[in-house]
Every structure is written in structure tokens, then in C-alpha cells.
Design a protein that fits this description.
400 residues; D-amino Acid Aminotransferase, Chain A, domain 1; alpha+beta; six-stranded antiparallel sheet; Rossmann fold; Dna Ligase, domain 1; 3 domains
């Protein structure tokens, strides 16, 4: 589950991470009031930031023609005008796709005097099975680009989860990032706060980009998380009722929300051949082989290892809600899953939905003979296949 920036900063603040003063709002009048308070507190600049689940907001463009979903402003009137231009409008960035995202909330916050931008993230290194802190002096940039062009600028600290991020590790990382004096202590505290946020919230990612060294009015320096992104592991949400309350359904695809109601893992893609598969690895392989034979997958859909007849029917209805779908490939390997249950669900779904698209079914595993017999003896138009490559070829040809 992804969080908005203002929500991510709230969780970070709970764990002692320094974030800019500010508030979220959904009306221009509220935005002006927040800005007046910030200017009254002595801040010279205020930033207005569109709250959507996508990066690249600053370089984005609203469909109305207004440029930029992040604005640095000097007066409360400018903040109000910017809020009017953003709220209720659709922002298109490099991560939203051409359809963009509607901006329902904005964050109005103090804009500190930034001296240097850094990158910091806490995540799991799957190769070693341990959490790490990843940092770079190249803050404000796409970390993927830095990793490709300047891999030596990415620093990694492996954390033993039994002990957590230790103070000496945090201080060493601060020194490697070029910090000195009092900043080292500040950085160590902030790094530990970021790691604790990652662990306490069962996050899959906590990212601060940029993490900034800022100049305070008295000339001293401080470390501030100017932007933040947090993704929570869905499997751990039962432990975090407060975080579940932060879920913004308007930022999620309607079909993915519907799939979640039936414990189905569904992600919509841009192709026209729908996939219904049991197991994430098999689903990835199925999408790959469709692509290999010249087709284009319309979705990732994993019904899980023990799907019921009702879940299979629900999966078909979700698939058919996508108008781009021109054909369906069902690829089931029956381990825990029984092929006859899948076959019954498929036939029931075909009848209920009056399916008139090409449907290719490949079954293998437990009770496969019974499952195939059910399909063969039905009066429904279902194309059978014995191997995955045969199934992929048949569905691509049928759609073409």
C-alpha cells in the first residue's frame, strides 16, 4: 500500500525524523491560511505540493495547461492562486501515464534554504535477505539513473535485524556522505529514525529524496527530510489499523480494488490478452511467453494456490471489465489447486458472463483429467492446450 507524502512524513515524524513544518488541505482558502501562519512564523518561502501517488510532480503538467505540481512561492496570495490551479485538476507526470491523476489534496509546507541534496532509503536487499540503508550524495535525482551512470556514488549499510541500525553504522554513513561536526550526530539520529520507521511500519520501502542539508536563520545547518515516500507491505496491514486508515482508494485502480475484495492479486497492463494464473512466478512466465509469441498481456492476475470456484468467477468478471481485453489465457498448475475446481469455475464464469472472446485453457496437475473432461463435455467454446507454449501460440493467433 502506497502512502501520500504528507502521510509518509507523519510516520517519519513519529520516529524522530525532522520534516518541514506544514499541513495538508483540500481548499484554496485553507492553503492560504496555512501559508499565512508559516510566513508569520518567519519562513521566507512556502512550497505547495500536489498529493498523488506518483513521482515527477514538479515537472508534471496539469491537463488544464498549468505547469508543475510543486511550486515555491513567496506570498499567501500566490499560494492560494496555486492551490486553485491544482485542486480538482488532473496532473500528468512521467509516472502517471497520459491519463494522469486527479489532485484532491495539497501539502503546504515551509521551504527551507537548501544547501545540499542527498538520497536515503531503507529497504530489503533480497540477495542477502537483510534490510539495508541505501544513500547517495546525488539527491534529487532518479536513483536508477545514478546506479547506472555512477554506481560508486551509492552507499549501502547492511543492518542486522536482531540489533537494528547501530549508532556507529549511522555515524560512519554520515561521514561517508561528507558530513562533519554537529551534522554527524543529527544524521545518525535521522538515519536510525528512518530505519525504525521502516521496521515499525512493516514497510517495503522508506525513501527520502531529497534529504537536505539546510541553512537555518542563525546560520547553522540542519538535516531535513524534504520529500518522502513510503510503501507498506500489504501482508502486514492487519497489524497497523492506523496505517490502513491512510489508504486512499481514489489513487488505486478500480479493478485492483475489486480484486482485493476476493483476495486476488491483479494489476492492469496495457495489452489485450488477459491472463488468469495460479502463482506469481507462473503468472510472470505466462506474460513473458505471450510477449514472446507476439502478443501483449492485459494484466497480471494470480488467483493463488487454493482459489475457490467463486474466486475464479470473480477473476473472470474483473478481466472482462477491461475493455481492452480481446482474448483470455488460463494457465493453471494444480498442486494445492485442483484442476477440476478451476474448470468448474471457468465454465460457470463463461456462462454467467456470456463470454464471446477467445478463451484458451491449459491445465496441468491435480485432477487434470477430470478438469479437462469437464471442459470437453461442456457445450462452451473453449480452446484447450497441453503446454504453455501451445496455449500462448493459440491465444495470440485467436486474438490476431
Amino acid at each position: 500500500m502506497n502512502l501520500h507524502e504528507y502521510q509518509a512524513k507523519e510516520l517519519l515524524s513519529r520516529n524522530g525524523v525532522n520534516t518541514p513544518e506544514g499541513q495538508v488541505c483540500d481548499t484554496p482558502a485553507e492553503a492560504k491560511n496555512i501559508a499565512e501562519k508559516l510566513f508569520g512564523d518567519g519562513h521566507d518561502m512556502v512550497v505547495v505540493k500536489s498529493q498523488i501517488h506518483a513521482g515527477g510532480r514538479g515537472k508534471g503538467t496539469f491537463t488544464s495547461g498549468y505547469q508543475g505540481g510543486v511550486k515555491l512561492l513567496k506570498t499567501a496570495d500566490e499560494v492560494e492562486a496555486s492551490a486553485k490551479a491544482m485542486l480538482g485538476e488532473t496532473l500528468v507526470t512521467k509516472q502517471t501515464g497520459p491519463e494522469g491523476r486527479k489532485v484532491n489534496k495539497i501539502l503546504v509546507a515551509a521551504a527551507p534554504a537548501i544547501k545540499k541534496e542527498l538520497y536515503l532509503a531503507a529497504l530489503l536487499d533480497r540477495a542477502i535477505g537483510r534490510p539495508i540503508l541505501m544513500a547517495s550524495v546525488e539527491g534529487g535525482m532518479d536513483i536508477e539513473e545514478v546506479a547506472e551512470t555512477s554506481p560508486e556514488k551509492i552507499l549501502k549499510v547492511v543492518v542486522d535485524p536482531a540489533f537494528g541500525l547501530e549508532a556507529f553504522q549511522a555515524r560512519n554513513l554520515a561521514k561517508q556522505l561528507g558530513m562533519s561536526g554537529k551534522l554527524i550526530g543529527q544524521a545518525a539520529k535521522l538515519f536510525q529514525g528512518v530505519y525504525n520507521t521502516y521496521m515499525n511500519c512493516d514497510a517495503s520501502l522508506v525513501e527520502i529524496n531529497p534529504l537536505c542539508i539546510v541553512e537555518l536563520p542563525d546560520g547553522s545547518e540542519s538535516l531535513v527530510a524534504v520529500d518522502a515516500k513510503i510503501s507498506i507491505d500489504d501482508n502486514a496491514l492487519f497489524r497497523h489499523a492506523d496505517i490502513v486508515g491512510m489508504r486512499d482508494l481514489e489513487e488505486e485502480a478500480p479493478l485492483e480494488i475489486e480484486a482485493g475484495k476476493f483476495d486476488l492479486s491483479y494489476i492492469k497492463l496495457d495489452g489485450n490478452i488477459a491472463c488468469l494464473v495460479n502463482g506469481a512466478g507462473l503468472a510472470m512466465a505466462t506474460m513473458d511467453i505471450i510477449q514472446h509469441f507476439g502478443g501483449s498481456p492485459a494484466n497480471f492476475l494470480d488467483v493463488g494456490g487454493g482459489a475457490s470456484k467463486e474466486q475464479v468467477k470473480a477473476a473472470f468478471k474483473i478481466i472482462l471489465s477491461d475493455p481492452n481485453v480481446k482474448g483470455i489465457l488460463v494457465n493453471i498448475f494444480g498442486g494445492i489447486m485442483q484442476c477440476d475446481i478451476i474448470a468448474s469455475g471457468i465454465l460457470a464464469a463463461v456462462e454467467e458472463t456470456n463470454l464471446n472472446l477467445p478463451l484458451v485453457v491449459r491445465l496441468e496437475g491435480t485432477n487434470v483429467a477430470i478438469g479437462k473432461k469437464l471442459i470437453e463435455e461442456s457445450d462452451l467454446s473453449v480452446i484447450g492446450a497441453d503446454s504453455l507454449s501451445e496455449a500462448a501460440k493459440k491465444v495470440v493467433e485467436a486474438v490476431a
